[in-house]
Design goal:
Blueprint: E1 2-3, H1 39-64, H2 77-89, H3 94-100, H4 103-115, E2 120-129, E3 134-142, E4 149-167, E5 176-177, E6 185-198, E7 201-202, E8 206-211, H5 216-220
Parallel strand pairs: 1-3
Antiparallel strand pairs: 2-4, 3-4, 4-5, 4-6, 6-7, 6-8
Length: 234
C-alpha cells in the first residue's frame, strides 16, 4: 500500500488524487492474448492479475484496521455494484453532479457545459443496465494523517443509453434534434468509484470518472511485474 507524502500537511488535501497507482483491468476480447495462440503471454498476464488480486486483498485488510474506532469499516464488495448503479442513475444537472462526483470530474463537466453554445443542450437517457455490475479492481492509498486513506474501486458497467443534442429554434419554437444524435447504443465502460476515510471517518462513495482496460504490452514488458521465465516470446 503506497503512502502518499505531503510536506505541508493540512486539511485542504484534495479529494481527487487521480487514478491510484497499480490499478489493473484485465483486457478483454481481441486485446487479451489468446491462450492457444500466445500461451506464454496469456499465462504471464493471468499471473500478474492473480498477484494484483493478492495485493488488493492485503490493501483491503490494512484499510479496515486504519481506524481504531469500532465497528471498523467493512469492505462491502457486494454492495459496491448496486451503489455504482445508483450513482450512475443520478448523473444529470450540475447541482446533482456536485454531490456525487469528485472535484476533478465535476470541473470537467463544468468546463464542457461552459464551452457549449447557449442555444444547445444535451439530453442523456439511461434506458437500462443490460448486465449486472462487475467488480474488477480495488486500490487503496494511505494519506499522511492518522486514520486517513483514499479507496478506489473499478466497476464494469454495461447499459443501453442515448445522448441527444438539442438546439433551440428561438422564442416560441420547439427544440430540434441534431441529426445523428439521440440513437440508443450499447455502452460498456469502467466506472471508478472513490471513497475517502478522513481521520477514521468514512465519507460516501463518489464517482471519480471512467478508465480503460490495461494495455497488456505495458504489463508484459516490465521485468518488475513479470518473472523472466514467464515473459512472452519475442
Amino acid at each position: 500500500m503506497k503512502l502518499l507524502m505531503k510536506q505541508d500537511a493540512g486539511a485542504n488535501l484534495p479529494m481527487d488524487l487521480g487514478l491510484l497507482e497499480g490499478t489493473f483491468i484485465m483486457p478483454t476480447g481481441r486485446r487479451k492474448p489468446s491462450l492457444f495462440l500466445e500461451p506464454r503471454r496469456r499465462l504471464a498476464l493471468e499471473w500478474y492479475r492473480a498477484r494484483q488480486r493478492f495485493i488488493e486483498l492485503r490493501m483491503g485488510w490494512s484499510y479496515k484496521y486504519l481506524s481504531e474506532k469500532k465497528p471498523r469499516p467493512k469492505m462491502g464488495l457486494r454492495r459496491v455494484g448496486p451503489t455504482a448503479q445508483a450513482l450512475y442513475r443520478q448523473i444529470g444537472d450540475i447541482t446533482t453532479l456536485s454531490t456525487i462526483c469528485t472535484e476533478g470530474l465535476l470541473a470537467s463537466f463544468k468546463s464542457r457545459i461552459a464551452a457549449r453554445p447557449r442555444n444547445e443542450k444535451l439530453r442523456w437517457t439511461l434506458s437500462k443496465f443490460t448486465h449486472g455490475p462487475k467488480f474488477v479492481s480495488h486500490r487503496v492509498a494511505v494519506l499522511p494523517y492518522k486514520g486517513s486513506a483514499i479507496r478506489q474501486m473499478v466497476i464494469r458497467m454495461r447499459s443501453r443509453q442515448s445522448l441527444a443534442r438539442l438546439v433551440s429554434g428561438g422564442p416560441g419554437r420547439p427544440e430540434a434534434l441534431v441529426q445523428g444524435t439521440g440513437d440508443e447504443k450499447l455502452i460498456s465502460e469502467y466506472l471508478v468509484l472513490q471513497r475517502r476515510m478522513w481521520k477514521e471517518m468514512e465519507e460516501p462513495w463518489m464517482i471519480w470518472g471512467t478508465t480503460e482496460e490495461t494495455d497488456p504490452d505495458t504489463v508484459l514488458s516490465s521485468d518488475a511485474v513479470v518473472p523472466a521465465t514467464a515473459k512472452a516470446q519475442p
